[in-house]
Amino acid sequence: MGELNDDQLVSAFKALGHPTRLEILGWLKDGDSFPPQDRPAEEAGVCLKHIQARAEVSQSTASQFMATLQRADLVICTRIGQFSHYRRNEQTIAELSKAIGSGV
């Protein structure tokens, strides 16, 4: 993917500007911090219902949070049946970290 452009940086920082979204991204770093699922979290991600329960928000709020993180390319969504599973997009997160380290 390469370096993040200014629009991507702004989108990522806006997505991380809400404490719960920032917390969710941290939780997703360790899939074991959620209840066991049929598939390992590192393979398919964490089901939205588990994210919702941990964040103690409504389903629609959890969906909005994840949509914002997905638009910023910070998470990847995988549909399994009727359920959405989310995992971190480590490539984008590494590029964001590199941009921050270089003084943006």
Automatic annotation (TrEMBL):
GO molecular function: DNA binding; DNA-binding transcription factor activity
InterPro entries reported in the protein's UniProt record: ArsR-like_HTH, HTH_ArsR_DNA-bd_dom, HTH_MetalResp_TranReg, WH-like_DNA-bd_sf, WH_DNA-bd_sf
Entry keywords, A to Z: DNA-binding, Transcription, Transcription regulation
UniProt superkingdom: Bacteria
SMART domains: HTH_ARSR
Stated name of the protein: Transcriptional regulator
Taxonomic placement: Bacteria, Bacillati, Actinomycetota, Actinomycetes, Micrococcales
